[in-house]
Amino acid sequence: MMVSELDLSRVRVVLMHTSHPGNIGAVARAMKNMGLSQLYLVKPDLFPHSMATSRASGADDLLASAIVVETLDEALADCCFVVGASARLRSISWPVHNPHECAERMLEASEDGDVALVMGREQSGLSNEELERCNYLVNIPANPEYSSLNLAAATQVLTYELRMAALARLEIKKVAAKKDYRLATMAEMDGLYEHFEVALTDIRFLNPASPRKLMRRLRRLFNRAQLDEMEVNILRGILSAAQGQKYHYEKEDKS
Amino acid sequence: MMVSELDLSRVRVVLMHTSHPGNIGAVARAMKNMGLSQLYLVKPDLFPHSMATSRASGADDLLASAIVVETLDEALADCCFVVGASARLRSISWPVHNPHECAERMLEASEDGDVALVMGREQSGLSNEELERCNYLVNIPANPEYSSLNLAAATQVLTYELRMAALARLEIKKVAAKKDYRLATMAEMDGLYEHFEVALTDIRFLNPASPRKLMRRLRRLFNRAQLDEMEVNILRGILSAAQGQKYHYEKEDKS
Question: Is residue A211 in a domain?
Fold first, then answer.
């Protein structure tokens, strides 16, 4: 994928047994607003239908290209990652994430192939068997006293997060393209922490009574900062200079 | 406000001259789903109306308590922060933010008083005069080829971000309550960078040919990490030890 392109073409929305055709149209509109185009309908009650076309309001191209299938398996056969949306938090213990996290994971997976967002029936959501087809479940953290969103409203929120995640990924790629050094590896970070421990002992800064507490604070600080290779080299250079030694700016294999 | 409470009671939604009563009902449902309750209607074409009640689908308490006014000024009189939603990015240069940023700012402002989210007419959005009443404008980054969201869909996205921002603020307050040290002040950071420059010169690490480049890299690293006061003390302690001096763990006023 090019750095400059926002691409949601690999994300499909799958609607299960939708009873109101107006909802199918409203979902199509929400999808097109957010730049999605692949709509799958599993056994809709009424489709095509004038109510669907009217609520789609200009997104009727998505209805025309919608793929109607008999079973959920047909809709998911070629997908590499599947997220199920359900207002009800079932008793089965399946990983549940918020829309933001789910969207990021779906976009990541979409680099390997098509991914699907499965929306349940208006009244009853997804069955346990359908939930078990999913890698993740997504839950919109709604008002617990009034938590059931309209089908199109839920799709709007979830596709909005997909679009925001796609925009954020574009930004990250642009920044990465501009970055001068790669992130440090874990081995390089281990080398840095070992060097800190030795050098701080040499210059008599490390408190022998509690070496771990200081080292833990330093780890927390530098792990949080996500150092690049040059920053590791600079810090090790400072430590070597403090020890009165010369540190060579070379990559090394600390194993 | 208690740390354990999610409170969106100070956030109102203001609908301008809504033409379809069904949209008012759908907005009320979206608001209640996300935990908002204050609905203001500026000169709606038809209200109350059976279509509003039917689309509200259980959120009719918000319709019953909705406040109908003649002008936008009446709806905003007691508000301390106002955000206007507009699909059209006008020629006037007003600060435009995405829904996530706007929601955070609104929640922050709501600690001082009521805040308002103003939604424009279905067909024409907000007029320039109405936009000028706003502190911020919010734009949902939609598909540029099909960017106009339905009124209730836009409200759903914006109130969803408000709820997510409120949840995030609760988390931050919980974390802050657990944090052991406060963030370092700018003066303390300046003291740290000065100390780096002197100490690195003392231990002959700073390259006299390009002192600024190294210092810029260190600033970028430590600014990114957002140091707390104890971390600044530790780093200065290390620098002093490297210089062969003793650094006292005391707060100092570097002015």
Answer: yes
Q: What would the DSSP string read from start to end of A99-153?
A: HHHHHHHHHHHTTTSEEEEEE-BTTTB--HHHHTT-SEEE-----TTS----HHH
Same domain, yes or no, for A42 and A128?
Answer: yes
Distances (CA, A) of A68 to A18, A46, A123, B54, B206: 12, 11, 20, 30, 68
- Residue of chain B with shortest Cα separation from A237: B205
Let me know: does B98 contact B37? Beta carbons within 8 Å.
no
User: Average pLDDT for residues B19-47, to the nearest whole number?
Assistant: 97
Q: Are A29 and B153 in contact (CB < 8 Å)?
A: yes
Q: At what angle do helices B229-243 and A211-225 cross, to 10 degrees?
A: 110
* A&B contacts, CB < 8 Å: 126
Asked, for residue B249, whether it belongs to a domain, the answer is no
Cβ pair B231:A237 closer than 8 A: no
Say what the pLDDT of residue A196 is.
Answer: 95
Residues A191, A158 within the same domain: no
CB A8 within 8 A of CB A163: yes
Residue among B5, B77, B9, B13 at smallest CA distance from B40: B13
- Based on the fold, state whether residues B124 and B156 are members of the same structural domain: yes
From residue A91, give the alpha-carbon distance in Å to each of A121, A128, A202.
Answer: 18, 9, 57
Interface test mutation site (partner A, options B6, B37, B63, B146, max chain A beta carbons within 10 A): B146
The distance of B157 to chain A (nearest Cα, Å) reads 6
pLDDT at A56: 96
The answer to whether residue B174 is domain-embedded is yes
pLDDT in tens, A111-135: 889 999 999 999 888 988 898 889 9
Domain ranges, residue A199: 186-242
Residue of A nearest to B142 (CA): A34
**Which residue from B33, B147, B160 is facing A147, i.e. has the nearest CB?**
B33
Does this model's pTM top 0.80?
A: no
- Residue in chain A closest to B158 (alpha carbons) equals A157
Phi/psi at B134 (nearest 5 deg)? -95, 145
* Closest chain A residue to B55, measured at CA: A150
Of the candidates A40, A42, A49, which has an alpha carbon nearest to the alpha carbon of residue A20?
A49
- Using a CB-CB distance cutoff of 8 angstroms, which residues of chain A are in contact with residue B230? 217
Tell me whether residues A221 and B237 touch, CB distance under 8 A: no
| A59 belongs to a structural domain | yes
